[in-house]
## 1
Amino acid sequence: MPELPEVETTRRGIAPYLKNRRIAAITIRQRKLRWPIPEGIEQLLPGQKCSDVGRRGKYLLLDFDCGTLLIHLGMSGSLRVLEQEVPPGKHDHVDILLDSGSSLRFRDPRRFGAVLWHQGEIYEHPLLSRLGPEPLSADFTFEDFWQRSRGRRKPVKNFIMDSTVVVGIGNIYACEALFLAGIHPNARLDRLKRQRMEALHHYCMDVLEKAVAAGGTTLKDFTSADGSPGYFSQQLHVYGREGQICGQCGDEIKRLVIQGRSSFFCPSCQRK
DNA sequence: CCCAAGACCTGGCGGC
DNA sequence: TGCCGCCAGGTCTTGG
């Protein structure tokens, strides 16, 4: 489900309910996620106050004085704030009850997500320490983006989805950024000239900014923390549109599998 | 170092 | 209805 805009939408949705609230209780119904939920957090966390809700790439970071709760939504995860009791469904693996009476519910049918606990400097966590720059920050410079692309032969699409290059871009926004930049997803990285890479760098930021502003993309089941959908799906040019007509040129949108992932593109607007 | 493939899971859909 | 294969928003791990 979630790429950076969906995770950021979730962060903004849950933060007001969590910030400066203490945890009253934690219920864990299924520990087996991408990695097991650490033993003991249901004893450790109650009584602790959440000082902030941050994000690094697609990871949500719930700050406490004694450590950080790190949450990844994987492919199918979501977080909802419940202001009254709602019976848990089959895939509602964790509930975090707050002293306000609201609770935060983690649902994840495919269980590729993660809920982890880290004490100490969170950015030293092995999952975060090697991440590339945040695309919507000044750290995401073209020079760095360009330098890192040199000497690599893989398809350009893999490069922008590589979290050591830039964080937060998944399959949807990779397809969209490439469309906007006029670059074929299978173009070899080392054959792209500087000017075209500049366009790509620009549209990576542009598409994510606009998607965050729209509250993310709802395809099947993504909803914000209050249950409302994201509206960016209305602005998708190619993702999920195989066989439809390109709004820019009238040609037919195609699908191609690159590294096991569906890649949607317009063969006329996007060149190698 | 780079890269491709495999791994982890469940559910929905179309076809027969 | 049932079964089968394919598809899905991620990314770590392994092996060449």
## 2
Amino acid sequence: MKDYSISGKTVERLSLYRRILLGRKKDGATHVYSHELAELACGSAVQVRRDLMSVGCEGHTNRGYDVPALIDGISRFLDAAETQGVALAGVGNLGRAVLAYVAWRQQKLVVKAAFDSDPAKIDRVINGCRVYSIDAISAVLAREKIMIGILAVPAEQAQEIAEKLISAGVRGILNFTPVRLQLPEGVYVENLDMTVSLEKVAYFTRHPGTADGGEVLPEN
Amino acid sequence: MKDYSISGKTVERLSLYRRILLGRKKDGATHVYSHELAELACGSAVQVRRDLMSVGCEGHTNRGYDVPALIDGISRFLDAAETQGVALAGVGNLGRAVLAYVAWRQQKLVVKAAFDSDPAKIDRVINGCRVYSIDAISAVLAREKIMIGILAVPAEQAQEIAEKLISAGVRGILNFTPVRLQLPEGVYVENLDMTVSLEKVAYFTRHPGTADGGEVLPEN
DNA sequence: ACATGTGAAGTTATTCACAGCC
DNA sequence: GGCTGTGAATAACTTCACATGT
């Protein structure tokens, strides 16, 4: 399999395409055109074709792409062979929101353990996920072979808990906190910073026309 | 003031710089070098200098940048003259997490009203923010002159509620739902899609080295 | 006629390299 | 020597234009 240098943006779009395609499939669609998928994903048709090409998916001239085959092709590229376990650190409102997202229930990613420092939460089961004490992190992550962490703790604890995740074996973190983590090289970090995003929205709402986003659909 | 075409990425970084600078200021720092700020922001020093230049901030040779002046310069660029009101749609776990986060920083952005369809939540006050019925959206947004919305409702309602926000006067949306909204041109939408981001983390955790992120600090 | 696939061109973003300054 | 500011070079990403297939 050739996964030679796929950009982060392409990975994001592929994930989005797949989710859209799963919806289309449920609606009974058997084929999609690149321009249809583009519209649903708020992108351009050429972009869709390039992304799909980059993972080896082919369409039929004049008939578009076969939906189940596409889902399969994207999944073969995005997913690991076996399901990957994920650990959640922080079971506050945000953490519970993460657990409530059933979207990835049937996916290859499963949140297998949650951690919190509040004794009242420990040993509870929320959305099918058990909450452990932070102290148990190394043991649980080793047992479940977890390499992916979601960081949803208060900002003050972010760096400390991130380090605990790393030393427990985590190699990739989805960081919901506004802190920019200082971690050893080789650890992948994706920041979902709502304060930055909100300020961006505020800025481009006040300065329309200068935005990069904002719903534009070039054609071809 | 020349705010001629600042890219979205620069706006994001400026927001981040400011937050970091506020922290440094609280720690008593009076000056920062571009390379210090770069390290804290996980970026490069040249990038920092270019970003700051683009909003007209100047540093002093050999002494770096004056912290309060920098904060001021960035704020003059990012912030509106008066505080901007924000409306939150959806007071589930995610919505409450948003209220908790944003209350934490008393910026020029204030969540002035929240909306939910659950009667049990209506008229409650959470983190200083009152919850209204969805039916009151037009009246409340007009009264508070709100143009920015945060969408944190279940996926099934996302499109519908987004349209209600728009027709109530909102021109920019921070979208936490996994739905790609189909909205009229001129409305700015920023997607914070945790499912996509988690799959991205999973992918690049499994394929290290091909990532764009992952803590690298080139120098100069 | 209309859709895919793709080299080439265009556009945007980042980094290099160095001038100027203290 | 070490820092800022910036033209020039590079890299990354997107779109154009069109060849090809049915």
